[in-house]
């Protein structure tokens, strides 16, 4: 195994030793197979390639101080993959198969789980694709479910340092009543141009508006948006955003420290009124936001006046990280030890 510079890992693909695969054929899932190949062979008419029958998940496992590997809330990812499969008519992956595949992929690559305390983790990427050949627009009759893993550092290079984001309205990542609330590749394809332009214009990410009327905040790139106003945690409610498992966890922790939690449409004008804002997701947990620039109007909203994240975002960030890394009591049973 190559020497790994655990402290400077990017958030990117990293080759490990094994991945696991399972095929759905003749109406049923087969046996889990272990592979050391990074390649998959599929039919050129596979529906994943033509009609976007593709869904994925992203979750993390952490090495605790005790040396044990903890996997965070995998059942929620299993359920979300089932919702994604249902949304684009793919064969759903049974929760037990999801569990077996994810745990097997971690155990086979256990040496790639980064050491405790460096902010790095093992990222797990389950993937479900339509492999059956079709030319007409219809769901495939064959699927491949696979899981690969790799060590990653923090998603945003800046770590837990406030970033700038750009509010965009000339691109939407998902249509109203489209596929925004499930984790399918098409949403990410639709977000690429806006994200790329935002980065070129100097922003860490972009914030998309509600595609139906462009009055409300939707998704913060590949993360959910939240704002803190006094003692209230506010996060958007919308048909077109992905229900983030990190956000779900932060809402619980916010309630635990005495905040009122509101999940409701968040109007753009409301950005003026927040004390703290951030983006949340598996990759970064929380990315505090110091400035949001509305690309339509040039108007900018400033936060983090002292240059550091606000106190509530900081507290929530540390609480969640400590639970994930086994340093704080896991009262809700969010972690599963991978033996
Ligand atoms: C579009 C989008 N929103 C939100 C999230 C955050 O979700 P989670 O906290 O489950 O990682 C992700 C990442 O998975 C995402 O891709």
List keywords for this structure.
339 residues; alpha+beta; D-amino Acid Aminotransferase, Chain A, domain 1; D-amino Acid Aminotransferase, Chain A, domain 2; 9-stranded antiparallel beta sheet; 18 strands; 22% helix; globular; binds pyridoxal-5'-phosphate
In short:
The protein is an alpha+beta fold and 339 residues long. The chain contains six helices and 18 strands.
General description of the model:
With 339 residues, this protein is of the alpha+beta class. The protein folds into two domains: 6-152, 2-Layer Sandwich (D-amino Acid Aminotransferase, Chain A, domain 1); 163-324, D-amino Acid Aminotransferase, subunit A, domain 2 (D-amino Acid Aminotransferase, Chain A, domain 2), CATH 3.20.10.10. It is 22% helix and 28% strand. The chain has six helices and 18 strands. It has helices at residues 47-50, 74-87, 95-108, 185-200, 245-256, 311-324; strands at 19-25, 28-29, 33-35, 54-56, 59-63, 69-72, 121-130, 143-152, 163-168, 205-209, 217-220, 224-229, 232-235, 260-263, 276-281, 285-294, 300-302, 335-338. Strands 1, 2, 3, 4, 5, 6, 7, 8 and 18 form a nine-stranded antiparallel beta sheet that branches. Strands 9, 10, 11, 12, 13, 14, 15, 16 and 17 form a nine-stranded mixed beta sheet that branches. Strand 15 (276-281) and strand 16 form a beta hairpin. The radius of gyration is 20 Å and the shape is globular. Bound molecules: pyridoxal-5'-phosphate. Residues 58, 219, 222-224, 242, 244-247, 281-282 line the site of pyridoxal-5'-phosphate. Pyridoxal-5'-phosphate (PLP) binds next to helix 5.
């Amino acid at each position: 195994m190559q020497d790994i510079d655990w402290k400077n890992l990017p958030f990117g693909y990293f080759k490990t030793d094994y991945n696991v695969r399972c095929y759905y054929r003749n109406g049923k899932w087969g046996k889990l197979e272990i592979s050391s190949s990074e390649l998959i062979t599929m039919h050129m008419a596979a529906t994943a390639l033509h009609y976007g029958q593709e869904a994925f998940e992203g979750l993390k496992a952490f090495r605790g101080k005790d040396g044990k590997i903890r996997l965070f809330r995998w059942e929620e990812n299993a359920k979300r993959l089932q919702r994604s499969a249902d949304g684009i008519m793919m064969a759903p992956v049974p929760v037990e198969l999801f569990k077996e595949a994810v745990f097997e992929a971690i155990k086979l690559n256990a040496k790639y789980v980064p050491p405790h305390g460096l902010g790095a983790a093992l990222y797990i990427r389950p993937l479900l694709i339509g492999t059956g050949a079709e030319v007409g627009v219809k769901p495939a009759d064959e699927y491949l479910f696979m899981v690969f893993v790799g060590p990653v550092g923090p998603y945003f290079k800046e770590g837990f340092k406030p970033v700038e984001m750009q509010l965009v309205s000339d691109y939407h990542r998902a249509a109203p009543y489209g596929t925004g609330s499930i984790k399918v590749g098409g949403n990410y394809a639709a977000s690429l141009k806006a994200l790329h332009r935002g980065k070129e214009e100097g922003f860490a990410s972009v914030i998309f508006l509600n595609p139906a009327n462009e009055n409300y905040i939707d998704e913060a790139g590949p993360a959910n948006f939240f704002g803190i106003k006094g003692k209230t945690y506010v996060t958007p409610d919308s048909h077109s955003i992905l229900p983030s498992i990190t956000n779900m966890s932060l809402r619980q922790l916010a309630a635990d420290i005495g905040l009122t939690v509101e999940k409701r449409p968040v109007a753009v004008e409301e950005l003026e009124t927040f004390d703290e804002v951030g983006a949340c997701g598996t990759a970064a947990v929380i990315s505090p936001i110091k400035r949001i620039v509305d690309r339509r109007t040039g108007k900018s909203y400033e936060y983090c006046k002292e240059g550091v994240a606000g106190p509530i975002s900081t507290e929530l960030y540390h609480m969640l990280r400590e639970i994930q890394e086994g340093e704080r009591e896991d009262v809700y049973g969010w972690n599963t030890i991978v033996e």
